[in-house]
């Protein structure tokens, strides 16, 4: 099978030369000492000038975490993490929090420019439409700048780093933080509660449609440093917001931990659209290095007829453990999960969603597209459940896997549970393979192997790409192509 | 245009020899018909010509416009003008026919150092060619070959050929599965491409197609060799008498 063999060889090469965000920046940093203890937590809290209640919240979580066990049910393998061998706080010197654009270290601005993220408050040229995108830039443990803050404020929208929000809007934070993902939720989420350093805070008041796309770009730069981001988005009655997160990291031989918690709250008639383009460093061709991406993301459709939609394009990380979920609490609420998970080389992905139907007439839709190449393992794990009181719950799940080569694996693990007899859950799953016949057919038409794979894969994921904000759809498509390429980068 | 000299080829995986000392010359402007019993190696020859890597050439050479193409990738051969209309066109799920055409045309242009087609220019060409072949615009929006009927698949092959404007066209049993009207449409499509700088190889079992696409030469392939060549009357002879006499005479 020579044609396919060649493809396999090519995709196997995905590694260091491929990952174009792998550069390292030399910036003077201030770090907390290595390791985890109550003192370190006090250090982080003090660095962020947090109120006493926040510190107590962290310490409580830490004490609980000490009693917890690392979960092992996911289909991923990695050596035991030494949590005392990690730096929990690293910040570019002199940045205790975000500043105005002119005060930000030009070196930092350059980093984001190099990543293709302009932080100047200008209109981003994207496709046919010119649109403004507000950006929160998080570098290691701190947010370095948030753009368009003033303009958003005029519309009543609060968009700032979570550290700032804790100081400036303590009541809002207190009310919602941990209300979707409680500090006791799971091992990594609890760890995050104890040591989270930065992330974004979004509050859209009643009846307001957020006037621009919001986005956060996370960058892990320092060695041996974990990133523990915490994001909280609240959409009041009838509000709408679309938010996107992106992430990159330098190439490093050692694994780095990223354990985030994201909480979304949608009140009556509100809608939150949350998109992720996850492109952490995936490790080299031998499986050395790469980010461990252990993330808890959950949205609470708290109000009636509210809607939360997760769209994710996962191409990076050595290991991904991630299940953006929706609690459909409000009557008539709707949850959506659209996912593209690409694994290549030695990557391992165990990702999916949970749709928990609690209210009446709630509906959910899951479209998952997994693409596995190289010697990677790609698992979709999903749960759809209807509570006793969830009259007329509806779910549609479509789960498709595409294999490239014969050394990778794709797995689908759906859990379905209906405690109310009126629930209607549909599940469809397919597994296909890019065949040698298909590749030869494309080659014969003058389409080289890599372009042929990109063409077929992009056809496979089209449904999900359409869900991304237009400005990012093209980028995401390219990214998928690149992650599966062998030579071009 | 095409010179195949003493070609020996085997299946890469198990070493079975399929092409055993094949000689064939096709000149520019010529239409050559290749006929021969099932399993004689006709499709295999077309695959080897277009660079499928499942086969290993152990001896001989293939010269295309004087250049030995055996070292070229399949996509390079395509960009240089070799086109194969497949006996069994392959389904490409999720990729709209229109998009496939655009990528194929532009990849070939890129290889040849030409500019990409503008979208209006591309649309104009596709619409025109599709109309000639009586292909409905809806079909172009569907994923390539997915759920196409046998006849629609064959027509889609000819559409691609018309748009890619190859120099050497190999049609592998394009007539099979076509109704009388479609056969005529496809034959017209092929005849429209006939030109002094283009050669066509038609692989077929039936005289019927050759009534429409009249060949200049006819070659009989048997057990991986050309055992007899002639003009168009040879095809009539085969239609009337079958292969037995020719095979016997060659033995
Ligand atoms: N990849 C392969 N693996 C195994 N056998 C093969 C392969 N390719 C060709 N063959 C065998 O080689 C012989 C020639 O096949 P080929 O398809 O070229 O015949 P053909 O002349 O096109 O026949 P038909 O008229 O039926 O289309 C057959 O016996 C076929 O089974
Ligand atoms: Mg054949």
Automatic annotation (TrEMBL), chain A:
Residues 152-210 form the SUF system FeS cluster assembly SufBD N-terminal domain. Residues 218-460 form the SUF system FeS cluster assembly SufBD core domain. It comes from the Bacteria. Pfam families: SUFBD_core, SufBD_N. InterPro entries: Fe-S_cluster_assembly_SufBD, SUF_FeS_clus_asmbl_SufB, SUF_FeS_clus_asmbl_SufBD_core, SUF_FeS_clus_asmbl_SufBD_sf, SufBD_N. GO terms for biological process: iron-sulfur cluster assembly. PANTHER family: FES CLUSTER ASSEMBLY PROTEIN SUF (PTHR30508), UPF0051 PROTEIN ABCI8, CHLOROPLASTIC-RELATED (PTHR30508:SF1). Belongs to the iron-sulfur cluster assembly SufBD family. This is Fe-S cluster assembly protein SufB. The gene is sufB.
Automatic annotation (TrEMBL), chain B:
Keywords: ATP-binding, Nucleotide-binding. GO terms for molecular function: ATP binding; ATP hydrolysis activity. It holds the Pfam family ABC_tran. Residues 2-248 form the ABC transporter domain. Signal peptide: none annotated. It comes from the Bacteria. NCBIfam families: sufC. Belongs to the ABC transporter superfamily. Ycf16 family. This is Fe-S cluster assembly ATPase SufC.
């Amino acid at each position: 099978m020579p044609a396919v063999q060649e493809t396999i060889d090519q995709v196997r090469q995905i590694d260091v030369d491929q990952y174009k965000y792998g550069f390292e920046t030399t910036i003077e940093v201030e770090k907390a000492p290595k390791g985890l203890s109550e003192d370190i937590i006090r250090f982080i809290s003090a660095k962020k000038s947090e109120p006493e209640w926040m510190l107590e919240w962290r310490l409580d979580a830490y004490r609980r975490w000490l009693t917890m066990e690392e979960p092992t049910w996911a289909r991923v393998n990695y050596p035991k993490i030494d949590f005392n061998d990690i730096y929990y706080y690293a910040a570019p010197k002199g940045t205790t929090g975000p500043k105005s654009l002119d005060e930000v270290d030009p070196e930092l601005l350059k980093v984001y420019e190099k990543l293709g993220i302009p932080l100047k408050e200008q209109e981003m040229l994207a496709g046919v439409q010119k649109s403004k995108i507000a950006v929160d830039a998080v570098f290691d443990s701190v947010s370095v700048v948030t753009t368009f803050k003033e303009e958003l404020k005029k519309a009543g929208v609060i968009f700032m780093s979570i550290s700032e929000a804790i100081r400036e809007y303590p009541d809002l934070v207190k009310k919602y933080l941990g209300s979707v993902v409680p500090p006791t939720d799971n091992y990594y989420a609890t760890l995050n509660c104890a040591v989270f350093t930065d992330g974004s805070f979004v509050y859209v008041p009643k009846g307001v449609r957020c006037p621009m796309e919001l986005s956060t770009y996370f960058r892990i730069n320092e060695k041996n440093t974990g990133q523990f981001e915490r994001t909280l988005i609240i959409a009041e009655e009838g509000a709408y917001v679309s938010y996107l997160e992106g992430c990159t990291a330098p190439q490093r031989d050692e694994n780095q931990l990223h354990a985030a918690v994201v909480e979304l709250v949608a009140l009556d008639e509100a809608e939150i659209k949350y998109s992720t383009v996850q492109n952490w460093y995936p490790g080299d061709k031998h499986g050395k290095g790469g980010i461990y991406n252990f993330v808890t993301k959950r949205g609470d459709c708290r109000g009636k007829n509210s809607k939360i939609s997760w769209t994710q394009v996962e191409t990076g990380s050595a290991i991904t453990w991630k299940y953006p979920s929706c609690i459909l609490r409000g009557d008539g609420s709707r949850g959506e999960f659209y996912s593209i998970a690409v694994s290549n080389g030695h990557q391992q992905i165990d990702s999916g969603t949970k749709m928990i139907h609690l209210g009446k007439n709630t509906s959910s839709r899951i479209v998952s597209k997994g693409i596995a190449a190289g010697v990677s393992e790609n698992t979709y794990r999903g749960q759809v459940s209807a509570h006793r009181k969830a009259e007329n719950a509806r779910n549609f799940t479509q789960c498709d896997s595409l294999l490239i080569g014969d050394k990778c694996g794709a797995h689908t693990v759906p859990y379905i549970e209906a405690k109310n007899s009126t629930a209607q859950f549909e599940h469809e799953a397919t597994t296909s393979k890019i065949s040698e016949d298909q590749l030869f057919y494309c080659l014969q038409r003058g389409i080289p192997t890599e372009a042929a794979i990109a063409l077929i894969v992009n056809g496979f994921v089209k449904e999900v790409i359409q869900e991304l904000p237009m400005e990012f759809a093209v980028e995401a498509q390219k990214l998928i192509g690149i992650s599966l390429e062998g030579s071009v980068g | 245009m095409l010179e195949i000299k003493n070609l020996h080829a085997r299946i890469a995986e198990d070493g079975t020899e399929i092409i055993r000392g094949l000689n064939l010359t096709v000149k520019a402007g010529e239409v050559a018909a290749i006929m021969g019993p099932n399993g004689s190696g006709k499709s295999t020859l077309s695959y080897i010509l277009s660079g499928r890597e499942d086969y290993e050439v152990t001896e001989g050479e293939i010269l295309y416009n004087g250049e030995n193409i055996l070292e070229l990738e399949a996509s390079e051969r395509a960009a240089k003008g070799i086109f194969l209309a497949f006996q069994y066109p392959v389904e490409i799920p999720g990729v709209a026919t229109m998009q496939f055409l655009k990528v194929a045309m532009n990849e070939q242009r890129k290889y040849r150092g030409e500019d990409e087609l503008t979208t209006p220019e591309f649309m104009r060409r596709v619409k025109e060619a599709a109309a000639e072949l009586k292909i409905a615009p809806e079909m172009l929006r569907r994923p390539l070959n997915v759920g196409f009927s046998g006849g629609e698949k064959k027509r889609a092959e000819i559409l691609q050929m018309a748009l890619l404007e190859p120099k050497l066209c190999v049609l592998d049993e394009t007539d099979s599965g076509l109704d009388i009207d479609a056969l005529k449409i496809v034959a017209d499509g092929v005849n429209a491409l006939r030109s002094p700088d283009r050669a066509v190889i038609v692989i077929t079992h039936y005289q019927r197609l050759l009534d429409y696409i009249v060949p200049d030469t006819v070659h009989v392939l048997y057990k991986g060799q050309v055992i007899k060549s002639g003009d168009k009357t040879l095809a009539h002879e085969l239609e009337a008498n079958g292969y037995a006499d020719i095979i016997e005479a060659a033995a």
